[in-house]
Design goal:
Blueprint (H helix, E strand, L loop, with lengths): L65 H4 L14 E4 L11 E2 L1 H6 L9 E4 L9 E3 L2 E2 L1 H9 L3 E3 L1
Parallel strand pairs: 1-3, 2-4, 3-5, 4-6
């Protein structure tokens, strides 16, 4: 019996560790009937308040909440287009002589393809590449042309 393997058939909780759950609101004989141990009225007796996790989220005991105390400023442009960034040294992963387009970058796994692409001049580039249809920084353009590549809009 000492070397018996543990399996689902012989698992049991440690003695005293498992208690039956408290069945609330099941009549006066249970000890937790009627008000289910919450007493009468008050915020602690209401649904969705107190207990583990506290009361209402963001409720600060009646003082003016932080979200209403701080000034409201600025504007979020709903039409803003965030570009997907590609580093210049990441173009080294592409096979030599390939045309760099948003589609070829997507095939190589460098971008997801859902947003416009922008090429930044982080790192160096050794191979001559042709870049077509991609926004880029002025420094990235200089580095590509210095490496013998071409940039076409």
């Amino acid at each position: 019996m000492a070397n018996e393997k543990i399996g689902l058939h012989n698992l049991s909780p440690a003695p005293g560790s498992h208690r039956n759950r408290k069945r609330l609101g099941r009549g006066p004989g249970s000890g937790t009937g009627k008000t289910s141990g919450k007493g009468h009225k008050g915020s602690k007796a209401r649904a969705g308040h107190h207990g583990p996790g506290g009361g209402k989220p963001h409720f600060e005991g009646g003082q003016m909440p932080l979200t209403r105390r701080i000034p409201k400023r600025g504007f979020t442009n709903p039409f803003r287009e965030e570009a997907e960034i590609v580093r210049l040294d990441a173009l080294g992963r592409l096979p030599a002589g390939t045309e760099v387009t948003p589609a070829s970058l997507q095939e190589a796994g460098l971008v997801h393809g859902s947003r416009p692409v922008k090429l930044l001049a982080n790192g160096e580039i050794a191979t001559a590449v042709t870049v077509r249809g991609i926004k880029m920084s002025a420094t990235a353009r200089q580095k590509i042309e210095a490496a013998g590549g071409r940039v076409e809009e």
